[in-house]
Specification:
The complex is a heterodimer of chains A (357) and B (231). The mean pLDDT of chain A is 84. In chain A, the strands form four sheets. Chain A has a six-stranded mixed beta sheet, sandwiched between helices. A five-stranded antiparallel beta sheet of chain A has the order 13-12-11-14-20. In chain A, helix 4 (128-141) runs parallel beside helix 5 (158-174). Chain A has helices spanning 37-45, 87-91, 106-112, 128-141, 158-174, 186-192, 210-215, 323-328, and strands spanning 3-11, 14-22, 25-30, 52-57, 60-61, 72-75, 146-150, 178-183, 195-200, 203-209, 228-238, 243-248, 251-256, 265-271, 275-278, 289-300, 305-312, 315-322, 336-341, 351-353. With 357 residues, chain A is an alpha+beta fold. In chain A, a hairpin with a 4-residue loop joins strand 16 and strand 17. Chain A has eight helices and 20 strands. Chain B is mostly helical and 231 residues long. Chain B contains eleven helices and no strands. Classes of the chains: A alpha+beta (357), B mainly alpha (231). Chain A binds chain B through residues 45-47, 66-74, 76, 78, 80, 82-84, 93-94, 96-98, 121-125, 138-139, 142, and chain B through 120, 122-123, 125-134, 136-137, 140-141, 144-145, 227-231.
Chain lengths: 357, 231
Amino acid sequence: MTLSVQISHQFSGFSLDVTFQAPSGVTVLFGPSGSGKTSVMRAVAGLLRPDTAQITLGEDALTEKPPHKRRIGCIFQDARLFPHMTVHQNLTYGARFASSGNGPSEARIIEMLGLNHLLDRRPATLSGGETQRVAIGRAILARPRLILADEPLASLDEARKSDILPYFERLAAEVDMPVLYVTHSVTELARLASHVVVMEGGHVVRSGTVNEVLSDPIGLGGSVRAMGSLLHATVAHHHDDGLTELDSGGNSLFLSRLERPEGQVVRLRVAAHDVILSRKRPSGLSALNILPGKVLVVRPRDGAGTLVSIDTPAGHCLARITARSAKALDLTPGADCFAIIKTVSIAPNDIGGVLRD
Amino acid sequence: MTDWLGPAEWQAVALSLKVSLWATVLSLPLGIFTAHALARWQFPGKQIVNGLVHLPLVLPPVVTGYLLLLAFGANTAFGGFMDSIGLPLAFRWTGAALAAAVMAFPLMVRAIRLSIEAVDPGLEEAAATLGASRPWVFMTITLPLIVPGVLAGSVLAFAKAMGEFGATITFVANIPGQTQTLPSAVYAFLQVPGGESAAGRLVVVAIIIAMSALILSEWLARRVAKKVGGT
């Protein structure tokens, strides 16, 4: 089932005009604050009436339907749990309106989100992370056909964020429906997205699969620090010295200890500015991760920077180097090249489970 | 109790309680509806409705009573209709209840409106996205969350109804056993020589009733707040 969205709306001093599609899987609506992401989400949920809109889910036209008939599970940034109800009453609020129950059972969802011991509590007594987990469960148990998550982690501190992210990964793997996830965090995007829609100033500036968008030098809009690439790898072995060895297209990658079982496929986000390039296979270097490949594209940026995309067995790898280096190394499309990645430069938060595309 | 209060005094107290209770209970649904409309809806003429609701608060009560007489008196269409269904208003306790309800209405609506405005609209939106239609959202989210405000508004309205004098005496006069409420009775006793002791006893009763209502509502509101607050 695909969500197809066309919205235009004139706010005072801001115009929103977007068109995009979100297939099954997680589509991340990415962009800086004030780019109109939340308005798009509110329009899809029916909480905002745009001047003109064409919103369809599969064959079903949603545009004229009131919010309660759209069957869209919303996860809000501020959770919005009902304060006068217990956790269990919150979780089952939507069930009475759900005509057909598809997807995982109530018990399974409660188990998956680790809510069993909280069921009789009231929202006021929950921690931030627990609150957000209940909000996730409540949205799923309303048996929606689409899930909207509006910066669900934005109000949490870093530690809580990394607690909750795995639940979203499981959610994405568990439910077979489009998930529209609004965020301005590259980490969340890299871990969750199968598709990305990049917004800026009320318009869509780029959309595509996460690999396409992340490794495209202009993919995520203005932020250079946001640029990077996604590599796929399999957890191969946990070494005694605190490193985890991964296999990525026949090459070994070493990371700080990764709490994932051997054999699991993961994806790593490698920031473009953490990649060093070399024309010869380097030796006597402290960096452990060396990926051989060929130069795909060299794209000069403003100022002294240049972005180089390398085709490696682990996937496309993006490096941000100076124009001077690019020239000195004679990096042209087709040239053989080695990408060097420092082990410690891959933050644990930038490693996610692989989702279905 | 009946030994301490004379029959006429007891009659006035009982009548006042009856009139105030009915006035409060019957105007409550309309009060909640009006408060909700004023707090949450956008509609043309909203300021006019707001003004009409608050009019009894700012008009002299005698004027309100006279307007009630013009609108609901025995010779009017509405008065005739009420007569025909066996609930005549003119010079009856039912008319006293109507006068009390109209006078207490602004206070009730104000209290409830404030509590509705304090409910996060985001909660109502969340309920709607979970599949609840507007009436469901109101019954399951808004109403439970405004119970303290509804209690406060009801007690305020009840107290105002107990004390209502000007509009009542203008609209339905001061007939013992029919429209002579507690304040009317105090007034009547003070008009005759030697009536001070009876008036004094009624004043004590008025204070006791008012204080009890206040304490009861405080206690209920605390209980509800505790439940909503989640501890």
